[in-house]
Amino acid sequence: MGFAHPGPQGPQRLPLTRVDPHTTDPVSTMPFDFAQVLIFMLVAIGFVLVALTLSRLVAPRVLNADKGEIYECGERPIGDAWFNFNPRFYIIALVFVVFDVEVALTFPIAVVFKAWKEQGAGLIALAELLVFLVILAAGLAYVWKKRDLEWIKTVTGGPWAAANQSQKGPARRAAWEPR
Amino acid sequence: MLQPAEILAAVVFLPLVGALVLALFPAGDHNNLKGTAIGLTTANFLLSLLLWGNFRPGPGYQMELNLAWIEPFGIHFHLGLDGISLVLVILTTFLMPLTLLGAWSAVEHRVKEFVIAMLALETGMLGAFVSLDLFLFYLFWEAMLIPMYFLIGIWGGQRRIYAAVKFFIFTMAGSLLMLVAILVVATQPTGGFDFSLATALTRDFAPQTERLLFWAFAIAFAIKVPMFPVHTWLPDAHVEAPTAGSVILAGVLLKLGVYGFVRFAFPMFPNAALAAAPVLGWLAVIGIVYGALVAWVQPDMKKLVAYSSVSHLGFCMLGLAAMTTEGVAGAIFVCIAHGISTPALFLLVGMLYERRHTRVLADYGGIARKVPIFAFFLVMTVMASAGLPALSGFPGEFLVLLGTYTSPHGLGRIWTIVAATGVILAAVYLLWMTQRVLFGPLQNPANEDLQDMNAREIVTLVPLMVMAVFLGLHPSTILDKIEPASTRFVQLVHQGSGTNYQADAGALRRSSGVQMRPTTPSIQLPIRGQNPGGPPPGAFQRVPGLRGLDMVAPVKEQ
Amino acid sequence: MSISLPALEPLLPGLLLVGVAILLLMYEVFAGQADRTYAAHLAVVGLGLSMFLSLKAVGTPRALLFGTDLANAPLIVDDFARVASALVAAAGLVAALLSPSYAKNAGHDHGEYYGLILFAVVGMMIMSMAGDLMTFFLGLETMSIAVYALTGLRAHDPRSTEAALKYFLMGAFATGFLLFGIALVYGATASVSLATLATFKAGSPLLTLGIALILIGFAFKVAAVPFHMWAPDVYEGAPTPVTGFMAVGVKAAAFIALLRLVHSGLGVSAQTDSTWIPILSALAVLTILVGNVLALVQQNVKRMLAYSSVSHAGYLLIGVVAAARGEASAGSAIIFYLTSYTFMTLGAFGVLTFLERKEGGPESERYGAFAGIGFRHPALGMAMSLFMVALAGMPPTGGFFGKLYLFTAAIRAEETWLALVGIAGSLISVYYYLRVIVAFYMREVPEPGPTPTATRSAQLTLGVALAAFFVLQLGLFPAPLLALTKSAMLSLGL
Lengths: 179, 558, 494
Known about the structure:
heterotrimer, C: mainly alpha, 20 helices
């Protein structure tokens, strides 16, 4: 999502007008531009190396069971790190995308809408935005109707339904519940 | 009334149309299916006789049908006949109904698929013989492969799948090489494409390129013929194929290899062809002797006949390598003769196999007394195949040996001597087979109540026997058709390569010491690059043909 | 600002599909029926209409859309894009026809299935229209995500789940390469527009590296060796019609996008940088040989077809090499080959769909399972023989003409040796394609034989018949398609 929300520095970092390749040849100057990145990378790597080496040299070493835990601060992890995530988390994440994308396009249009209106293209921009929102709304309606906005969902149809019926569970059983 | 060119197209596509119609027939009605197929192929044979009637003596292509087809690629639907194509087309249409009739009782299951495959095969073969466009030729050449593959693979013997796949892969390997060569030939220096044979004949290539192109074509055709080192698929295919498959394979399919050399490989790349002629000649001679020797020791009749094909087709290739009119005309004649005697042999072996379910020579012996009609036909066929004078096998082999002996390159005499032993060996292995099957004491009790040939089987074989006798007595019937085209072929190759060999139809008469008619040499032929279309119609003066071989009075001159 | 609604008209084929897809989804949740055949019909009508619109527009001037400056427009709707759109729509159409009975049998008869096919087709269309690398990437992702989901539809079958996961992970990997490559190209040239990229000459190592990574991403998508490892498992596990769809659609879209890249963007670099031709050639040769040899030893027909599709990617790469050499007919040959490949592969998968057994499973996909089918179901047997013969590149099929065209282009680009390698590959392929025919016709039929036609339906029959018709039509009368491909390449300036 990073590039969809350009930060305040974003536009200033890049030249607004494209370099004309016929007049100035970016290929020849490019390595110099890239040198900044290179220096940045070297500094980053160096910082990590220095920090690690330094701590290895000066830090006291106390080996006990608590130090071997994942969270050194004392929080004991519960259960294994390898377990099945509930797939509904992913569905929620997907539903979130619907709203996220909405903002991603609506916000920039809102910013330039006034300028467009002055050019006489206001109605078109509005219509375009509406079409976009209708499509997103259709997506929302779809997940709503599919009851994916509810955390507990009854599975009907498909192989899981058959599996559910064959078991002695309650008739209304959430798909994500551990068997 | 149809135009001759339309008759030609009809002859090629009637079987395919018939196959499509037969696909609608109920699968259970075997007699109806077979009967209709035989009727169709017979009708096609009669139709093809119209081609014979319409054919004017001359070296060029006739009854041409040239339709635009795939314009951006310079591909045309171009059919046409010269004498060589004509006789091979007639041979194909002639054999087809007989083959189907011969298979009447041999093929009892999957009859519908069988007749459809046979008819599709016929269209493929006929199309390949009359295509004057490289693309079209390749199309038919490959299309022919698939029905034959089914014939071997479905109705064949124990190891049919192995044999079918081997047949397919061998042929395909050659074909693909040829495809690349065709693409190179068809790509014009100007940037466009032209797949027509006429254009291909006018093209010149760098010597190295020409050599590669020639061998690409030659390998494809040599596999089909089959020539000596690449013949190994043939015995397998023949032994495993059903009788009908063997008949068509030996009768027609192998001829396509020879035809390919005559029509494409040699004239398109004359320099390379002349340079390669010694190699081809040696391979042909080796094939003749090797095939004969291997045939001699075969315990299995079908394998024996298969190897005899290798030997006989060696004569065809030798005639081509000799590059004389007699040699080439003889080669084509051997093709026809072999296309009559070997199918008959396969049919006879098939009849025995149907009765006794064995093809091993040792299982027979002395059956002549039990099956006199069969014995008569077998002896006749063997004589024809062995090249006994007055039967069809003789004139072709004689012409090939003659043409080889007078060949302009120096190896001709050695080849003739070695190849002549092949003729002797052919008599040896064929007669020995006949003797072991027909004569001697009847020792195997299983042969006691062997049934003689029934009416259907006799009807199948009689036309073949009649042709064997007729062509033996009066070979000029087809030599007249072949000879102008053969002469043209020889001149095309020699002129194309710049060697100024005067193809001379009179050479035969001079060398054999028989002065028949005054010679009319020097046929006007197109010079490479100047007149690609061949001589204008009517510019050709008829040469009186190779009459010296006729055993009966020469036919009246027109 | 040149934004106005009529400017969207060139996008109508794609927009139509989006509309149909949304309609499908809405109908599914609000008025869904148990039998989703209606969804298949709707999708087929939509795809057919979209195809018709694309083809109808061929010959009209090209449209540049959405750019602030038109020379660098992100969407280019020219004849090339139109022909390609029609091609991928046709692939989707046949795939949709193959699906209803299979989906019912396999228990994934969802209306969303057809929606996903439509979205994938839209993604492919965007790829073919892409005027810059970001648009291309957008189309690629639209297509890929839909296809990932399609692959895993048989969720109760471990093979399908494995396939989906594998395809997703490998696809994400490839996407990573591609995106990194795009980033490097941008770093080197300060532009992602193909038109601007075309003005750069080779020489910058960053540009070279970027193109290399983009090519690796492509190689993953078309399953070129050595980036083919995912293909057999994914093809085997995915629902059979989906396998057909991804084998042709994804491949077609990727090659078409690559073609545009080579001809209008990175081609200049490819021509001036002497390292590309050898690398692409090596890729082509490896793909052909490895694909064919591995297909030879497969016992499962679907896996065999997977490896065969790898080898077909190799033949197409020969065309790309010729195109990179500047051979004008190569692009045309690639489009032709893709079209015939689409029909013959979808046809083959259609026949496999027909023969799918109720119980499914890998056993029913082995060669032996098809013994005697050719006689039990003569029409199916003939169709399968036709498709196999076409895949082997024999006349009179579109497969033959496609190969002929492709190899001719290679010869004209003075890469005859590549054509020979392609021919050698075709020869190897004959053996395993024949094995299918051997199984269908020549093996002993077990008694009593199973009747593996659990998934018969009118739509399926129509799909296979359409495929068979076009395979023959393209082989015997290729001129109409040749004209289309020619005008497509003309619109790229060739």
